[in-house]
Amino acid sequence: MDWGSLHAVLGGVNKHSTSIGKIWLTVLFVFRIMILVVAAEKVWGDEQQDFICNTLQPGCKNVCYDHFFPISHIRLWALQLIFVSTPALLVVMHVAYRRHEKKQQLRNGEKFDIEELKRTRFHIRGPLWWTYTSSIFFRVLFEAVFMYAFYFMYDGYKMPRLLKCSAWPCPNTVDCFVSRPTEKTMFTVFMLVVSAVCMLLNVTELCYLVVKVCVKEPRKTAALK
Amino acid sequence: MSWGFLRDLLSGVNKYSTVMGRIWLAIVFIFRLLVYMVAAEHVWKDEQKEFECNVQQPGCENVCFDHFFPVSHIRLWALQLIMVSTPSLLVAFHVAYRESREKKHNQKLYKNPGSMDGGLLCTYLISLIFKTGFEIGFLVLFYKLYDGFNVPRLMKCDVRPCPNTVDCYISKPTEKKIFLVFCGITSCLCIALNLSELGYLTFKHSLKCLKRYVKRGHTLKRESPKRKLEASFFLKINPEPRNGKNPLSLKNLSSKYI
């Protein structure tokens, strides 16, 4: 089970998404998950090993590292990506339920082709519209929460070179040096920008879906009249 | 052999699960297995290398690490995931057994081998009970072994060959605590889902049995005029009651038809 499995699960959503949704999915997998796996993980790979404190006191380095990095950037990003991807599963489940219903209906009548049923694309209207818009709303919410969590935990998005630590058992205020701070800052800013782009795409998609429904309803009412 | 094998095995079970079972499976795959593999494993990667004691005595660090962590959190988590996923295989085995029976007798014995009725329902309920049992068992084990889900920064160790009470520092205790709490929450969520599913299936099938029983009772009452006709026909042929018994009495009529 890894990111590839998540890709396989979410690939099914792609068929039933809008164009903006497909762009969002591509940005998620190429600019966030792939960057995380092939680059960011290596930058943070030796983060604790190369975190050096100017003291010989055993335990001081461990305690200072834990104090400044309660949860590593890499793990927080991984959790963010998982939480942001999961609302799309609501759409997958809804589509699976619709397919199951259609299969029951067709079973009572004539013969049907399972492969064709699997290939059928459901349009985003009715209950599926509500599921889809709820999933986009939750995505935006999770993105915002994680971006705020990052800001709150690390006091901004910059990785400092030097941290001053006076947690016990450090004998006094000790200088601790973070490994590769500039590279880490660059990746943090990059992930932040891509997060913002994804949020923008989600908000645009939400507006598009709402406007589409608002425009269609008056036309339908006018046609009925 | 890796987690992918378990994933493929459980994906096959998905077909025979209820809606809640599929939600449970999605939670296990995404919030437990995926989080374990992409995040949690790396947190505990260097746990012994980064475990530091304030002493130069050789062997003291090893002994203290072993004393405080008889089984690593991450290994216990992995065991929990495996034990909790496997009862679902009972259902897959039962369906495979039904299909092999049909093949053996070369006739359709079941409306649908995967439909949740009769023996398969019992198997499904048993698998739910086992899943819940394992979840609760592991949560209790975590709690008992590590004194809750807390991971302290400092532990005091006085096991031989440490010369006296020595301070030992665990690496990344806060991050470990966050992931352990996450593991505990998802475990509790899965327990709640399993119990809801158990309750729902038991209630649904009890209701079905009750309806069937009531329907049968109504059917019997509707048949009584017919029975009267048959009894009167019987009397015409045999006018005198046999053995002093009245053939039209409910007791004598009902013993024949229920």
Automatic annotation (TrEMBL), chain B:
<dbReference type="InterPro" id="IPR038359">
    <property type="entry name" value="Connexin_N_sf"/>
</dbReference>
<dbReference type="InterPro" id="IPR013092">
    <property type="entry name" value="Connexin_N"/>
</dbReference>
<dbReference type="InterPro" id="IPR000500">
    <property type="entry name" value="Connexin"/>
</dbReference>
<comment type="function">
    <text>One gap junction consists of a cluster of closely packed pairs of transmembrane channels, the connexons, through which materials of low MW diffuse from one cell to a neighboring cell.</text>
</comment>
<dbReference type="Pfam" id="PF00029">
    <property type="entry name" value="Connexin"/>
</dbReference>
<dbReference type="GO" id="GO:0005243">
    <property type="term" value="F:gap junction channel activity"/>
</dbReference>
<feature type="transmembrane region" description="Helical">
    <location>
        <begin position="77"/>
        <end position="97"/>
    </location>
</feature>
<keyword id="KW-0303">Gap junction</keyword>
<protein>
    <recommendedName>
        <fullName>Gap junction protein</fullName>
    </recommendedName>
</protein>
<dbReference type="GO" id="GO:0007267">
    <property type="term" value="P:cell-cell signaling"/>
</dbReference>
<keyword id="KW-0472">Membrane</keyword>
<feature type="domain" description="Connexin cysteine-rich">
    <location>
        <begin position="134"/>
        <end position="201"/>
    </location>
</feature>
<feature type="transmembrane region" description="Helical">
    <location>
        <begin position="118"/>
        <end position="143"/>
    </location>
</feature>
<keyword id="KW-0965">Cell junction</keyword>
<feature type="transmembrane region" description="Helical">
    <location>
        <begin position="178"/>
        <end position="203"/>
    </location>
</feature>
<dbReference type="InterPro" id="IPR019570">
    <property type="entry name" value="Connexin_CCC"/>
</dbReference>
<feature type="domain" description="Connexin N-terminal">
    <location>
        <begin position="42"/>
        <end position="75"/>
    </location>
</feature>
<dbReference type="GO" id="GO:0005922">
    <property type="term" value="C:connexin complex"/>
</dbReference>
<feature type="transmembrane region" description="Helical">
    <location>
        <begin position="21"/>
        <end position="39"/>
    </location>
</feature>
<keyword id="KW-1133">Transmembrane helix</keyword>
<comment type="subunit">
    <text>A connexon is composed of a hexamer of connexins.</text>
</comment>
<dbReference type="InterPro" id="IPR017990">
    <property type="entry name" value="Connexin_CS"/>
</dbReference>
<keyword id="KW-0812">Transmembrane</keyword>
<comment type="similarity">
    <text>Belongs to the connexin family.</text>
</comment>
<keyword id="KW-1003">Cell membrane</keyword>
